[in-house]
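Box 3.1 A note on notation
Throughout this textbook, protein chains are presented in two layers. The first layer is the amino acid sequence; the second is a token string describing backbone geometry. Keep the layers aligned when reading.
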Amino acid sequence: MDANQVRQDKNGCTPLHWAVIRGSLEVCTLLVHAGTKQELTLRDRGGFTPLQLAADKGQRHLSNILVSFLLELLLYL
């Protein structure tokens, strides 16, 4: 398996999805800075990206980090 391949569990969740579900700002920040653009846009089996999960759960602090990182990626395309 490629070391850069994004791993998803049986529910389609990545480590970033789980960090959002658990509301962990520290882990989300770490994963966002270490991850790939693909990880930010992957959907779980429910059809949610990590950003959509954060917004759905009312986790504004996590939503802000994810939006900032996505905007940063778009600016450097």
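The longest helix spans residues 60-75. The chain has a mean pLDDT of 89.
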